[in-house]
Inverse folding.
């Protein structure tokens, strides 16, 4: 009995599905632009980049399969590893100060003591909207060795002039300062929104039970903020591993900062994306450039995954 | 979901203020304000200095101690900015600005249209494959654009789009973030009854979208518009690859090239930077709340 009825039920189910699909012409039409454009401008380039990473190509002549040669070369390329080191340095050097600072500011703004909260919020947020190119140019001047304001201020506390942009030692801190300046406010606003969405009855209940401020922070605020913190950490990882215009413009004025050998003195300010840009579009090595893009993608994905898996877990799961 | 979060944020703080108020003495209060003021000062100072420096020539700017008050060279810097930029690249700073306005403006309009339409499709229709397609779309947001940068560049050459504005405008007009953002809003704000009654009256599906849905979702469109415009206005890497003709330059690449032109005269560069930033500042201060709620959307919904 059962065996006899299944095929016919299946047929009507299929027919129903077809009917549904044909009836759904409008929604399919409405959502189709994303899928069409992504197939052309997203999926195709990504897949093709993977193919190109096994080839040698200058964009004009015949493409040539080279197997894993690009990846082997990548492993032996000292400049690549230097760029990776710089980029990861900048990731930690921007992420940690920027997020701690943002958390402190958000916590103060949310404490309930503060007036003019909206004014502070708006002020902290302004760097996000300024063009990074414009601000890199402005900071380039602030970092001047002889006449820059930063060194002038430091001279008050007895620190001799620092060659921020020209020395291998200080270029990364200089880039990090610019990035921290630009993004702390953004993270402050996100943390503030997160803190404000924690239900106040949780705090009230804890207080009724006699919990101290410190306990409330560690056992209520921080655990509930974990998803928000994870969001900001992952966003910062993705952004900082793709730093480009800030290091490019800050190193461009210094010795060795030409377009053929970017990154400033000793290439201490060279990031992975700058190196990819340089190899791919100055030296037109599309295969090698693609292998590097793929390595950068793995780096971004690896750090995000690692954080999410081992550090960012929220307590609900 | 986003709108729910926003309402929650608005209504919360009042409940909590009174009880924690007395925990900190006057010294603690002063410390808190000092920290906030130091933060605000550090944030604002580079902008202030940028404007001040645009009124200086190197003779008055490159001195110890550095000046913190304006000088009289603004018009001189302006003339130099106009004339030299025009001589070397055949375009004025205002021309570059108009280019950026055209690119960012048309991009934003197209994004608003396609993303609200797509968000509406996902929010208010039931069709086979809806969940799978939605998850697929969200998954694409995890892949950074840099991965396919070389093939994207070649694709533009094959299309004959190299050194035109099309690569800046077309690829992103139906993007995953915009679809997601509009879907979240439309799901919570557009009454399905209204659509149904319009259908009974024989209204065309596209007319329902245009005449009924669009007017309701104006707030979400506003926030998306600001975000999209800002992103395009400041975009650097992709235009740098695509645009070689100086007549087509947008603000960020124009500014970067300006830097090479005026190595010494910092005031001229600062004036260029000021002119590039001022329009965004005006938009920002006119719509700060929408702006910030837009940029924080997606961060807080998990709490």
């Amino acid at each position: 009995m059962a065996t006899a009825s299944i095929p016919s039920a299946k047929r009507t189910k299929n027919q129903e599905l077809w009917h549904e699909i044909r009836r759904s012409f409008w929604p399919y039409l409405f959502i189709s632009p994303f899928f069409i454009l992504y197939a052309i401008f997203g999926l195709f380039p990504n897949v093709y980049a993977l193919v190109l990473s096994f080839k040698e190509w200058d964009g004009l002549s015949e493409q040539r399969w080279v197997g894993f040669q690009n990846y082997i070369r990548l492993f032996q390329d000292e400049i690549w590893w230097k760029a990776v080191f710089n980029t990861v340095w900048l990731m930690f050097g921007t992420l940690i100060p920027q997020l701690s600072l943002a958390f402190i500011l958000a916590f103060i703004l949310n404490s309930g003591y503060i007036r003019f909260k909206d004014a502070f919020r708006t002020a902290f947020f302004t760097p996000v909207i300024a063009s990074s190119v414009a601000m890199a140019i402005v900071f380039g001047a602030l970092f001047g060795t002889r006449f820059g304001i930063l060194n002038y201020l430091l001279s008050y506390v007895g620190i001799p002039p620092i060659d921020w942009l020209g020395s291998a030692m200080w270029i990364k801190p200089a880039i990090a300062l610019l990035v921290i300046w630009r993004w702390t406010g953004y993270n402050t606003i996100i943390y503030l929104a997160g803190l404000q969405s924690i239900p106040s009855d949780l705090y009230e209940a804890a207080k009724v039970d006699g919990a101290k401020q410190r306990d409330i922070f560690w056992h209520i605020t921080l655990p509930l903020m974990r998803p928000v913190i994870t969001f900001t950490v992952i966003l910062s990882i993705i952004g900082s591993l793709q730093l480009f215009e800030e290091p490019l413009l800050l190193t461009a004025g210094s010795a060795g900062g030409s377009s053929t050998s970017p990154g400033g003195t000793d290439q201490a300010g060279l990031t992975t994306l700058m190196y990819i840009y340089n190899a791919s579009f100055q030296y037109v090595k599309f295969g090698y450039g693609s292998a590097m893009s793929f390595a950068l993608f793995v780096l971004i994905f690896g750090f995000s995954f690692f954080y999410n898996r081992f550090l960012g877990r929220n307590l609900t799961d | 979901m986003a709108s729910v979060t926003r309402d929650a944020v608005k209504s919360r703080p009042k409940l909590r203020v009174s009880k924690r108020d007395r925990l900190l003495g006057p010294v603690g209060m002063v410390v808190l304000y000092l920290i906030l003021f130091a933060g605000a000062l550090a944030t604002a100072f580079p902008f202030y200095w940028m404007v001040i420096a645009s009124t200086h020539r190197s003779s008055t700017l490159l001195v110890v101690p550095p000046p913190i008050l304006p000088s009289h060279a603004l018009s001189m810097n302006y003339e130099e900015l106009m004339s030299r930029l025009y001589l070397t690249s055949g375009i004025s700073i205002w021309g570059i600005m108009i280019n950026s306005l055209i690119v960012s403006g048309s991009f934003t309009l197209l994004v608003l249209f396609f993303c609200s339409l797509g968000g509406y499709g996902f929010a208010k229709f039931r069709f086979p494959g809806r969940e799978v397609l939605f998850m697929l779309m969200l998954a694409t947001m995890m892949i950074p654009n840099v991965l396919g940068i070389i093939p994207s560049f070649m694709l533009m050459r094959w299309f004959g789009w190299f050194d035109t504005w099309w690569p800046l405008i077309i690829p992103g007009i139906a993007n995953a973030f915009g679809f997601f953002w509009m879907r979240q809003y439309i799901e919570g704000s557009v009454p399905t009854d209204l659509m149904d009654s319009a259908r009974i009256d024989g209204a065309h599906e596209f007319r329902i979208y245009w005449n009924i849905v669009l007017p309701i979702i104006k707030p979400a469109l506003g926030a998306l518009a600001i975000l999209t415009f800002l992103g395009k206005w400041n975009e650097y890497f992709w235009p740098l690859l695509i645009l070689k003709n100086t007549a087509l330059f947008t603000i960020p690449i124009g500014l970067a090239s300006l830097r090479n032109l005026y190595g010494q005269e910092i005031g001229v560069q600062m004036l260029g930077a000021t002119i590039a930033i001022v329009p965004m500042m005006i938009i920002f201060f006119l719509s700060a709340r929408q702006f910030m709620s837009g940029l924080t959307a997606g961060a807080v919904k998990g709490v």
About this structure: The CA atoms of residues 42 and 94 of chain A lie 29 Å apart. Strands of chain A lie at 55-56, 64-65. Chain A touches chain B through 110 residues (CB under 8 Å).
